[in-house]
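Render this sequence as a predicted structure.
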Amino acid sequence: MPLPEGLAGVRLDQAIARLFGLSRTAAADLVDRGDVLVDGVSRAKSEKLAAGAWLVVTLPAPPASVETVAEPVEGLSVVYADDDIVVVDKPVGVAAHASPGWTGPTVIGGLAAMGHRISTSGAAERQGVVHRLDVGTTGLMVVAKSELAYSRLKRAFREREVDKIYHALVQGHLDPLRGTIDAPIDRHPTQAYKWAVVRGGRESVTHYDTLEAFPGTSLVEVRLETGRTHQIRVHFASLRHPCVGDLTYGADPSLAARLELTRQWLHARTLAFTHPATGVWVSFDSPYPADLAAALHRLGGEDPARPWA
């Protein structure tokens, strides 16, 4: 197909995303796999297109549908629920929604088993989901129950009107103790299961503040301005301060073993937003789960008078 007017000078991955209604990540994956040819030649995703270019794009077959199974999820607790939203405290080992290759429990399946009616907006397997937490990350998630809530919450997350506060235990001591990490994130260039700070990636901004310094580790409070996949994990790893226990992103396995951690020390502590139906600002907090609290205790962080306890 000839390059449409208006796309001359646009990056290849951005042009593919616009032409086919894909996310930029999905478009970049197509380019990286060699499924996009420009004038008969495979090009870099960051290359800007010239007027009159001829594109040949091989689109993947649509993925098989994934069925959400209503089943009780151990440890999944409802923090708040009404006719429009349900806020949950997600335990470790639970995905936000069903996906190809995932056979474990999901938040949506757990809510269905509890009898919660979820919004029908969104793809079938992730209806009502307006944001996600990694399987190995615990803490607060909000799910839309009504169509009004879904549309307004999606917009609020997109326009960065939601306060998302995480606590993370990272290796080493940060310098400065408080700061901002502004570094673009995209798929790792050689390891498809990972993400990385990549030139030309999507804008990603993380604000942090050190709460407590322990021998060889720091407890930090993190506020996300953007919400990229693995953002906190990738950003701190890029500074050579990976989340303790995050072996995927270079954490020290001996430290994880000493603290008896089997996953990254990362918890979605606070979630606050304007209620989509009432317009009232609401805020929810989640205490540390047992494994993360125990790891802090082993470091000497057992004093309940501390502000983060």
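Summary. The chain has a mean pLDDT of 90. Helices lie at 12-20, 24-32, 107-114, 147-158, 231-238, 253-258, 290-299.
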